[in-house]
Each structure stands twice: as C-alpha cells, then as structure tokens.
Amino acid sequence: MLATYPDKVVVMAAPDAMNYSLPITTLTGENTLHNAAVTLYYALPPTWKPSLTTPIPGPVPCWDSNNQEELLQLMFTWPRTTSNVLGRTAVEQHKIILSDEVPLKSRAYSVSPFNKKITEDQVDQMLKDHIIEPSFSPWSSPVFLVPKRDGSYRFCVDYRRLNSKTIPDAYPMLLIHEILESMDGAIWFSTLDLQSGYWQVEMEESSKEKTAFITTKGLFHFCSMLYGHRNAAATTD
C-alpha cells in the first residue's frame, strides 16, 4: 500500500515500483553476518508538486496622499458626505422619557468675558446650522466650556439634574471584544467617523423643550440629539 507522507522515506512492497537498494548488515540466528538489501520508496501525494521559486505576494493597493486631484475627484463625486454641512436623519429620533414632568430650572453659570465670547460664538454657529433654536421652555440647564487638546473649547450643557429624572434605556450596549471577534477571517477593514454624530439625529418634538439651556444670549433648545444626555448612546447604537 502506498503511503502519502511528503518528505518521508517509507518501505514499500510493490516490486514493479522505482526503487533503490540500500546495503545493510544483518545478524542471523546462526550469529553469522550476511549482506541484505532494503527497497526504499519516496512517496509523494499525487497533487503535490515541489515549488521551484518562492511565491511573491502581489502589490497591496494604497492611496497616494500627495495625489490631490484624486482626492478632489472623490469629494466632488460625494459632495453631501464630504461637505461641512451636517446631515440629519429622521429614521430614528431621540426621545426623553422622565419619571415625572415637573420642570427643572437652573441659573446660568458665571463665566469670564473670554469664555462668554466663546460661548456666544458657538451658540451663533449652532443657530446657523439649525442645531438649536430659541426656546420658551420652562426647563433650563446651565452651560460650561471644556478645553480640548487642540486649544479650542467644547460647548457642554450640565444635564445632571435632567439625567437624574430620566428613565434609563436598557438597550444592550456593544461590547468591544465581541466586535473584534466578529472581524475574524476578514482581510479588508474600513472605518466611518461621523462629524458631530449626535447632531445628525433628530430630537422627538415633545422632548425638545426638556433640552433647553440658558446662556447670556438667552434660552435655547436642541433640534438635534443633545450631548451629555443619559440615553443618547443607546439611541446611536
């Protein structure tokens, strides 16, 4: 029977197969030395062929970051996704469900003239982008600024009191190890990072007044989903 182990010398019994003899010395029962020959066969799997050259992997395509024409062509092909104008989806709306409907009202925090100017500039920009609108809500939360690594400031609203009355959403959050395990066997990967992703989700109409915040320019509420709310992450997931 032919054995099919690559790179292994085995003893075969087929007399008509190609073979070569290896002289050895044996000891018989009479304690006499005799010359003998063992027929050896070099067996290979029928589909296996030795490679004469080392395989060279093919080139991996990559984008030349210096090719500005290609980049501009890509941006012109997808103008809505590469512009600075934020989109907004109505497929899912963020709704705030509270334990009771008694409004919470807070005074604006005292700020320096420097921070006041930054706050007012950001409010003006959000009004221009239709992220917020003037409000007559009985609710109000204070705002503050958080410095970022690049030297700019992040506009934040202190929604701690609102969050304390918000009924938590038990929607299961994604686990990073499960996401990584789902990539097993994949070769190509892509990432998508939305610019101000929360602001691209609509607020449910009756919940808008609960997002109201107070500034030196007046009272405003969000038309898009707010940052800092307890259940905002569950809505995006």
Automatic annotation (TrEMBL):
Its EC number is 3.1.26.4. InterPro entries: DNA/RNA_pol_sf, Rev_trsase/Diguanyl_cyclase, RNA-dir_DNA_polymerase, RT_dom. Residues 127-237 form the Reverse transcriptase domain. It is an enzyme of class 3 (hydrolase). One of its GO terms (molecular function) is RNA-DNA hybrid ribonuclease activity. It holds the Pfam family RVT_1. Belongs to the beta type-B retroviral polymerase family. HERV class-II K(HML-2) pol subfamily. PANTHER family: RIBONUCLEASE H (PTHR24559:SF455), TRANSPOSON TY3-I GAG-POL POLYPROTEIN (PTHR24559). This is ribonuclease H.
